[in-house]
Amino acid sequence: MLWFTPVARLAVRLYLLPSRVAYLGLPHPLSDVSKDLGRPGAGRVLLFGTDAASGLGVLTHELALPGHLARSISERSGRVTRVDLVQTPGSRIGELSGLARTVVAADYDGIAVVCGVSDAARLCDLEKWRASVLRLLHSIRASGKTVPIVFVGVPELSSLPGVTLRAGGLVDRWAQSMNRVSEEVCAAMHFVTFQPAVSPAGEGPDTRFRSAASYRAMGEKLAAVLTPVLCAHAGHVR
After folding, report:
1. Can you give the pTM of this predicted structure?
2. pLDDT at 71 over 90
3. Backbone phi, psi, residue 134, to 5°
4. Of the candidates 89, 107, 115, 88, which has an alpha carbon nearest to the alpha carbon of residue 45?
């Protein structure tokens, strides 16, 4: 297991501070309005967490991950699907457990969890990360009903818009270690699927900008994993 002193962790955090400021300063949707393609009887999916769920780089959730995810699941499943959004930009996983207590899992057919970038940027302790992933998943499940959950892996931070890191360097390898831990936790839980990170690069001359096309690609990749899980759990594979 990788190990670093608090001084090294602080050094990485300070180095990434300008990147974090630039990233969180991108345009973003002004409200957490659900993307609802729905009619009565529509399926419901919750997109929960931070990072890609926050829609940085575009101005509406129609163009961000919720809108593209809803459309892609609807097309793949043949069932109109609504995607609700519960998110908080730039948060660490420990902060999300409290937010998870506001979620009523029984209201949804499935839940996608996106988080971990801020934790990777701080070279979080891997055993604390394991405990936090487990705590978060249990918090989401606290409402009683078992619904399928897809836990999305942490992207390599060098792939993110505005982040100036060497590909394959220390922080990227740390994110990979976090993902191995997350995959182990998910494998030990019923109806929880680990999805490797999806992080298409920003497009255009401003590499910090995460475009609608990027979110569409992310939505399609996530829907490809989430739709079969939803259908199998509902007992109707198309």
Report:
1. 0.86
2. yes
3. -60, -45
4. 107
